[in-house]
Amino acid sequence: MARRRGFFAEVQHQAKVAEQRQQAALRQQSQAVKRAESAQRAAERAQVAASRASEQDRKRLEREAAQAHAAARQAEAEEMTAELHEKYTVLDGILSATLDVDDYVDLESLRAVATHPPFAREDLRLPIPAPAPIPDPVLPAKREPDAVKGVFGRKQKAADAAAAAEQQYATDYWAWKAAVDELPARRAAQEAQHADAERARKAALEAALAQYESESAARVKEVADQNESLDQLIAGLGYGTVDAVQEYVSIVLANSVYPEWFTVSHSATFEPATAELTLRVLVPGPDSVPAIKSYKYTKATDEITPVASTQKEAKDRYAGIVHNTALRSLHEVFEADRRGLIKSISLELGTETISPATGQPTYVPFVAVAASREQFELLDLSAIVPAATLEHLGAAVSKNPYGLVPAVAGGVRRAR
Question: Which pTM was predicted?
Answer without folding.
Answer: 0.71
